[in-house]
Amino acid sequence: MCHSAGSSDFSRTGAPGTTARRFGTNASRVLSSAWWLVAVCLGASLPAPSFAGVRITADEAIRLAFPDADVQRETVYLTPAETTRVESLAGTKPESAIVSRFIARKGEQLLGHAYLDTHRVRTLSETLLVVLTASGKIRRVETISFFEPEEYLPRAAWYAQFEGHELDDELSLKAKIRPVAGATLTARAVTDAARRILAIDRILAERSKP
CA separation (Å) from 70 to 38, 128, 135, 197? Predict the structure, then answer.
């Protein structure tokens, strides 16, 4: 609650007539304080931006993507040559040469892979879990954390358009991926991350070939 600036100042005066003399010498200070309090009150009434933060854990997202699978998590280290090739294939440089990958199997059958990708959107970061089918197409994109203001976070329906895409020219904001009004940087960051993950998955698949 905001209180009047003047009333408490004048109530502390002693002898009669002191208030008038003090007001004359301190008028500018009292008025300045009053305007400052008004500004604080008005500022307090304005809505502060809401930040999304952590939305779901990686383990929870994996269970949603592969509910009946045995999932193994591993850390993969890209070589300098592989990092350069990811950038060439994806059109965007990897955020790190250290890759967090999940391998989902049911018995002997490979169900797919999932990758974590942390990157900057505007000035703050987000982490995505990009889930791929065994054939290397996007199955789903899940936002693990988002530390920008929540108004820059697209709705869930927007992420659904990534499903079924592979690493080609169609996976672009200039092609099949629709942009988001007011969240252009987020749309670009998610699209770049999806392309990076598809490129990394292709390169790691090539490692296992004889």
Answer: 60, 21, 18, 21
CA 181-185-189 angle, to 5 degrees, is: 125
* Gyration radius of the chain over CA positions: 28
In terms of Cα–Cα distance, which of 39, 123, 85, 95 is closest to 201? 85
* pTM exceeding the 0.85 threshold for the entire prediction: no
DSSP state of 169: T
What is the chain's pLDDT, residue by residue, as a tens digit (210 residues)? 444 444 444 344 444 443 344 434 444 444 344 443 433 343 444 444 555 699 999 999 999 999 999 999 999 999 999 999 999 999 999 999 999 999 999 999 999 999 999 999 999 999 999 999 999 999 999 999 999 999 999 999 999 999 999 999 999 999 999 999 999 999 999 999 999 999 999 999 999 776
